[in-house]
Design brief:
The complex is a heterodimer.
Chain A: E1 2-10, H1 15-25, E2 29-37, E3 43-51, H2 55-67, E4 71-76, E5 82-93, H3 96-106, E6 112-116, E7 120-127, H4 129-139, E8 144-149, E9 153-156, H5 165-170
Chain B: H1 4-7, H2 10-26, H3 31-41, E1 47-49, H4 56-64, E2 69-71, H5 75-89, E3 93-97, H6 101-104, H7 107-115, E4 120-126, H8 142-146, E5 152-155, H9 162-173, E6 180-186, H10 187-191, H11 199-204, H12 220-232, E7 236-240, H13 242-246, H14 250-260, E8 264-266, E9 281-284, H15 291-299, E10 302-306, H16 312-315, E11 326-331, E12 345-348, H17 351-360, H18 369-381, H19 395-406, E13 411-414, H20 418-426, E14 435-436, H21 447-457, E15 463-468, H22 469-475, H23 479-484, E16 490-495, H24 500-509, H25 525-531, E17 535-539, H26 542-553, E18 559-564
Parallel strand pairs in B: 1-2, 1-3, 3-4, 4-6, 5-6, 7-8, 7-10, 8-9, 10-11, 11-12, 13-14, 13-15, 15-16, 16-18, 17-18
The chains are: A alpha+beta, B alpha/beta.
Chain lengths: 171, 590
Amino acid sequence: MKRVITVTVLNQSGVLNRVTGLLMKRQFNIESITVGHSEQANISKMTFVVHVEDEIKLEQLIKQLSKQIDVLKVNDITEKSIVLRELALIKVVSPANLRHEMNSIVEPFRPQIIDTSKNVVTYQVVGHPDKIDAFIELIRPYGIKELTRTGVTASVRENQPIDTPQLSILK
Amino acid sequence: MAANVSTTNEKAEMITTTESNSEVKNNPRNGADVLIQALHDQNVEVVFGYPGGAVLHVYDAIYRNPVRHILTRHEQGAIHAAEGYARVSNKPGVVIATSGPGATNLVTGIADAMIDSIPLVIFTGQVATNVIGSDAFQEADIMGITTPITKHNYQVQDVNDIPRIVKEAFHIANSGRKGPVLIDFPKNISATVFDETLVDASREEEIYLPGYQPNTKPNFLQIQKAIQAISESKNPLILAGAGVLFADARQELTEFAEKYNLPVINTLLGLGSIHGQHPLNFGMAGMHGAAVANDAIQKADLLINIGARFDDRLTGDTKLFAPNATIIHIDIDPAEIGKNIPTAIPIVADAKEALNALLKKDFPGPDTTEWLGYLNAKQQDTPYWYVEDEKELLPQQIIEMVHTITNGDAVVTTDVGQHQMWAAQYYKLNHDHQWVTSGGLGTMGFGFPAAIGAQFAKSDKKVISFVGDAGFQMTLQELALLNEFNLPVKVVIINNGALGMVRQWQELFYDGRYSQSLMPVQPDFVKLAEAYGVKGYRINNKEEAFSILEEALNSNEPVVIDARVKQLENVYPMVPAGKSLDDIVGVKKF
């Protein structure tokens, strides 16, 4: 199962190595990882998307991460109401005669064109990873020259749905 | 002779210490001086190490402000000695090595300490910060290499961080689930002048580690649940691991077992957590454990694991492990709970605190009369056994004789393999912190240097080191230390001219194809010992064994005993790897 895990760490040298090394050593499969500064000085936040086999493996993952001295907090936010965002830069072959068609096709994704040349255009698209996947599939037939994705970062929404008996019927 | 261990150069040290104190006032201190002072502040009694280019400043600081330093003959010897010291003294062992090869030579010992939770603080030299990453002479990325095998590691970037880092390192190594902490120390930082205005502030500074708050107090509700489960059980069983020893909770464990008449079994590393011949002790469980201990696990309806980690050598097939039992798991490391065996009642706590919490409540204990009766009968029927050989001496007999001669009081270190299992089976320990063995990593070459460290920790105790002929040859260069410090360690080589355990597996699982497991040519261990100025003995047969052992073990000098034993002897009972504990073989009914 796919899980989204955020890890708050002290910004020491080697901490990324320690965390990713741990995941490798314990045979966890990382799909994506993003790291950056947080609102507090000297504290960074990592967001992992990992595949785990079962609950026991997931529990191990969280416990092993929590055990690291420089790790302050580990949260599995998969079940929460969250915003997942990823950014992709996609360089596509785009001859003048097709450019208009392409732009209108991708319009619903609201991408930005951040670079153009005679035959190539670079789109920047931001959104949920599924949305980016869809964008890529849509544009693929035109010929993708280069593609980079940042990996997922996530934020927990301020208002979480309250589990009421009424709602649980819907699940 | 034993007294000599602690008196070497003591007077000279005192004089130089006072001299260097006055020196400090006049001369600015560098990073190395601060490091050594930090070791004094931590009350470090002894350091095991080996100098080299990157730690020259450190060794110069040791010369000027002496800390007791033992120069081993190989870095691996230093780290295993520190492990032995830590196990026996229950204090962190301290190691210094230089950069590059010095540091990489420590790797096996670091991994060994990590998996067996041994507290170590390791200092490695590093090339100067301006050349780190340039493949400089004797540079190795020891931070990268040791990250997966240390509890934590540091690279000193600023000379003024040294007091804080050393303090944190000792705290991390010796609290929570203990383990090795490495400090990588670039050469230029060891030479940089320390800002003395910071010294008082940093000494008094509290340790601030927001990401490291090990929980030692048990949760009240979980203790309640445990109590209820214990009082409702019919066949309860305590499995005591090394966590009991690290927490110094032998007395509490014994009291708890006696109060409610609960049978106790041990893991390999937990031996000594209850008296070896206590009526409630049913021995070691696991791959080569007692038939009764393994049977107890399979029949128990409640298994109380205190400070053991359900290692695969204990559990065998985890799906078939303790099929009838509710599991209570007391461990200081929350990550161990539920890792291998699903746990009904987890208690994250220090073993001593948890046992005290259980002892504080008086509750109606279970009636274990019938259960203990069953276990006692089983123990009587299926003891450890061997068939005496008409001609040859058996390894088990040697260990029994050593036990008799030392009354079970000696500190015992072992290497890894058959002799290790026989020592665990036949040397019944009277005390805690008396058993030093490499459990998790199974490091050959561990036993002998560990004995050196153990002897430094307890100079008044007899230290026996059981080693195999093969494992001994991996670190025997440390014999020089026995002579140099007149350490009365007794090395007992269980010499079968083979890699016994490998040979046993090849006999049982590979139709006796002894691929690379026999060593037809061995050194003359007696002469070898003598070459190092250590007394050597040889035991060729049963008849002479006891008297030679008696003479050798009762001497006050270091000795090496080359005991020639039967080559084809196997360790039994045995649970084949990956099988259920029920599939135990080599059990004999008496």
